[in-house]
Amino acid sequence: MEVVQGLPWARALLWLIFILGMPSTLESQGQFQANQDHKIDGEVVNMWGSKFGKELWESLTVATRRDTIQKGYDDHPNIQVEKIDGLMTVRRMAIEVQIMMQHKIDAIKRIMELAENIALDHKYDKTRGERLKSGRYTYYNAKKTQRPQGR
Q1: Nearest to 15 by CA among 26, 29, 1, 34
Q2: Which of 32, 51, 102, 121 has the smallest CB count inside 10 Å?
Q3: d(CA 57, CA 51)
Q4: Which among 57, 55, 43 has a CA at the least distance from the CA of 18?
Q5: What sign does the dihedral 68-74-76-78 (CA atoms) show?
Q6: Are 69 and 10 contained in the same domain?
Q7: Based on the domain organization, do 47 and 71 belong to the same domain?
Q8: Which of the pair, 116 or 146, is modelled with greater confidence?
Q9: Number of folded domains in the chain?
Q10: What domain range includes position 60?
Q11: How far apart are CA 52 and CA 138, in angstroms?
């Protein structure tokens, strides 16, 4: 339990697991039976909920450093939270994605057109295969060529 005491939010999480798992555990042990004679006191449940809510609020305040963030806003009066229209943000993002995709489509069409033009300009060489087989074909390795001195 020492680790849990050091982390307030973990203690609250254990409370939640305990409360949610309690009826099924008691029912499986035969201690809890749902019948008309067994009444649950509303005040007790309300007290449990209030205590759990308070512990959860305190734990999450520590876990999220809410006080530090609040102090930062209080120390700088010119800082404020601005509400943003989510629908407008999504629409703006959709337009930006549409423009980006259109640029990509246009680029692919240009590449396709260039490849088709190069293929149409290709000159078929009937003797290339024979030259390759006989070793009369000259291959220049671009990595081993000499660069001009000016560059």
Answers
A1: 1
A2: 121
A3: 10
A4: 55
A5: positive
A6: yes
A7: yes
A8: 116
A9: 2
A10: 2-75
A11: 84
- Cβ proximity of 4 and 11 under 8 Å: yes
> Using CA atoms, how far apart are residues 32 and 38, in angstroms rounded to an integer?
9
Residue where one domain finishes, among candidates 38, 56, 75:
75
pTM: 0.37
Cβ atoms of 61 and 17 within 8 Å: the answer is no
Whether residue 70 sits in one domain with residue 26: yes
Q: Do both 9 and 40 map to the same domain?
A: yes
| pLDDT value of residue 106 | 97
Q: Let me know: does 13 contact 60? Beta carbons within 8 Å.
A: no
Contact 15, 52 (CB under 8 A): yes
Decide if 150 is inside a domain: no
pLDDT at 81 over 70: yes
Three-class secondary structure of residue 31 per DSSP: coil
Domain identity same for 70 and 97: no
Tokens of 23: 């009826």
- 46-49 long-range CB contacts below 8 Å, 24 or more apart? 48/19
pLDDT of residue 150: 56
